[in-house]
Every structure is written in structure tokens, then in C-alpha cells.
Amino acid sequence: MRLFLSLPVLVVVLAMVLEGPAPAQAAPEISRTFERIPDKLKEFGNTLEDKAREVLETIKQSDIPAKTRNWFSETYNKVKEQLKTAFS
């Protein structure tokens, strides 16, 4: 039953895709596209910057860096003590 329903839907979707864009959806002039590239790149850069700042602030506010630093310090001190006792 599912196959009978999915095949016509698949055929309709495939026909729409192969038909191509409608005339109203045709690509604008290439010069307009090139004119908008710097604006799009600036917008992309701004959103990327904002997201990176949010991530960094989240990391700074969390206690993960402090816990990681403490764990490395403790592990380093343990290894150092073990080496001292082993080679003494």
C-alpha cells in the first residue's frame, strides 16, 4: 500500500525537478549577482563573528576550562611524584 502511494508522489516530484525553474524564478542578471557578493560576504562574516563570540562566552562562563586545567595540573604532579620516587 505504501509503495502505491509513494510512487506517484515520487513521479510528480521528479517531474517538477526536471521541469526546471519557472520564468519568474530565473536567475537575475549576472552583474546584479556580482554586485551583491560583497554584501553577502559581509553578512556571512558578521553572523559567523557573532556565533563565535557566543560560543567563546559560553565556554568562558562554564567551569570546563577550570576543571580541565585542574585535572592536568593534578595529573602532572602525580606523574612527577611517581618519577621522583622511581628514580630516587
User: Runs with pLDDT <50, length 5+?
Assistant: none
Tell me the overall shape: elongated
Number of helices: 3
Number of strands: 0
Assembly annotation = single chain
Q: How large is the radius of gyration?
A: 29 Å
Which whole number gives the mean pLDDT? 84
The end-to-end distance, rounded to whole angstroms, is 79 Å
Main sheet summary: none
H and E string: HHH
Please give the share of residues in helix.
over 70%
Structural class: mainly alpha
Proportion of strand residues: under 5%
Organism: Ailurus fulgens (Himalayan red panda)
Family: Belongs to the apolipoprotein C1 family.
InterPro entries: ApoC-1_sf, ApoC-I
GO biological process, one term: negative regulation of cholesterol transport
What's the layout of helices and strands?
Layout: H1 2-19, H2 30-61, H3 64-86
Write up what this structure looks like.
By secondary structure, the chain is an all-alpha fold. It has a domain at about 40-88. The chain is about 85% helix and about 0% strand. The protein contains 3 helices and no strands. The protein has helices at about 1-20, 30-60, 65-85.
